[in-house]
Design a protein that fits this description.
Oligomer: single chain
Bound molecules: ligand EPZ
Number of strands: 24
Number of helices: 14
Strand content: 15-25%
């Protein structure tokens, strides 16, 4: 398994190109199942999760080809209605296969997704929504069997929590339901707006994206589309924090500043110089930063996917700070690894209490999940001495060309195949 070796202490300087959003590309890829016409998706990041989804679509019967950062899907023939465990277990977002297949085939059998390291991550809201749209659901032999004999019918769906995945699955099914569907307390993430943009390009009739309520008027069929995926706001947040933790000066290109302004504002408050332009952000360390408390929330609050990276930065700032995780029940797994660098963090249930230390010393560390891995790399960049990061396959799920981009910014970093 590959490892990443970092000799820390280098200030990051220069330009980094932010890739397309993983969490926008994934639901858009599943949306291609809603039409038999070909589609083209641009600015797609080269990541393991994207490859998994391409493999999945081809298995189901939608010919899908990725060349560089563009994916083309072709007219489809008959789709399979079964999503097997060996595909679903690789990526939780595979549950998004349910919406489109239920809409097209009136049935889908998907293997139970299995847990993941950041919590149980049930899909009860997805299933409740499908029931409201007219599907019957049973669990047999490790599969969730979903059937809507008479086809899906529009409904009012009031989400108990603005779940990103549940919102996406409802959108991916209700667009072809008979009648109107209203989703209340809907997720407002930019990735939802990007998916709605694509579905409307396909001929869907959806309004209200980005607000508390989305209304979908079902249509009979949908066209193919061409779309350029929005920039990855979490990758952008990661590089902004990387510049801060190494006391560097970095310009991020191909970003949408508005999508990550909550992190930019927190960094400004801590004393970092942050200059936003239309599609770029410059972050420059000019003075010792002051620790800032954060609480993760749904968009437009502080993103849970940038929580670990933020904690890594807080560990090296003089003073105390508090980080509260409200989205996932188990998203501090990486803290024990940060303590191997010398971090002073106490975690009780959902709150991490951090006392800044003068320096980190490089250490061998292990990645537990995608964003935790990013935090360990940031810590290694700031640490004195050598850091060896193992289980980097987690990082390959969400960060395109990570070590190449960091090396270009002046980091002493390399990947070794072992
Ligand atoms: C999406 O996951 C993202 N993944 C996650 O990013 C992100 O952390 C999360 O949204 C929150 O922003 C993708 O977009 C592929 P949720 P998702 O449904 O859809 C609970 C990354 O690093 N819940 O909003 O799974 C759930 O357990 C990944 O790129 C239910 O209880 O997030 C969690 O505690 C990690 N029942 C909370 O809601 C349900 O039916 C948020 O989940 C659904 C969710």
């Amino acid at each position: 398994m590959d490892k990443i070796i970092i000799h820390g202490g280098k200030k990051l300087k220069g330009e980094v190109i932010i890739s397309g959003s993983k969490n926008s590309t994934l639901p858009i890829l599943f949306a291609t199942l809603l039409s038999d016409e070909p589609s083209i998706i641009k600015n797609v990041p080269s990541l393991a999760d994207i490859d998994t989804t391409v493999e999945f679509l081809n298995f189901i019967g939608k010919k899908t080809v990725k060349k560089g950062n563009t994916i083309r899907t072709y007219s489809s023939c008959k789709y399979k209605h079964i999503a097997p465990y060996d595909l679903v277990r690789k990526m939780r977002a595979s549950v998004l296969i349910m919406g489109p297949l239920l809409a097209r085939l009136n049935r889908v059998d998907v293997s139970l997704p299995g847990g993941c390291t950041i919590g149980a991550r049930p899909i009860d809201m997805h299933l409740d929504a499908f029931r409201k749209l007219g599907a019957e659901i049973s669990i047999e032999g490790g599969y969730i069997k979903t059937l809507s004999k008479d086809g899906l019918k529009g409904a009012v769906i009031d989400l108990k929590f603005p779940s990103v995945g549940a919102t996406e699955n409802i959108l991916l099914s209700a667009v072809l339901a008979k009648g109107k569907t209203t989703i209340i307390n809907v997720a407002k993430e930019p990735e939802i707006e990007d998916l709605v943009d694509v579905l409307n390009k396909m001929g869907a009739k959806i309004s209200g994206a980005g607000t508390e309520k989305i209304i979908i008027d079902g249509v009979d069929s949908l066209r193919g589309f061409t779309h350029e995926v929005i920039p990855d706001r979490i990758e952008a947040a990661t590089y902004m924090i990387a510049a801060a933790i190494t006391k560097g000066d970095v310009v991020l290109k191909n970003v949408t500043p508005k999508h990550i302004e909550v992190v930019s504002n927190k960094l400004k408050k801590s004393g970092l110089c942050v200059k936003e332009n239309k599609t770029s952000i410059r972050v420059k360390w000019v003075r010792n930063l002051k620790p800032q408390n954060i609480k993760t929330e749904v968009y437009p609050g502080f993103p849970t996917d940038a929580q670990a990276q933020w904690v890594a930065l807080m560990c090296l700032l003089k003073g105390h700070s508090k980080v509260e995780e409200t989205i996932f029940e188990n998203r501090f797994m990486y803290v024990a690894e940060l303590q191997r660098f010398g971090a002073n963090i106490m975690v009780n249930s959902k709150v991490a209490n951090i006392t800044g230390v003068d320096k980190f010393s490089g250490a061998p560390v292990m990645v537990s999940d995608l964003r935790a891995g990013a935090a360990l790399v940031l810590a290694g960049l700031a640490a004195e001495g050598k850091t060896v990061v193992s289980r980097v396959y987690h990082l390959d799920r969400g960060y395109e060309l990570l070590e190449k981009k960091l090396k270009k910014l002046g980091a002493d970093i390399k990947r070794v195949h072992s």
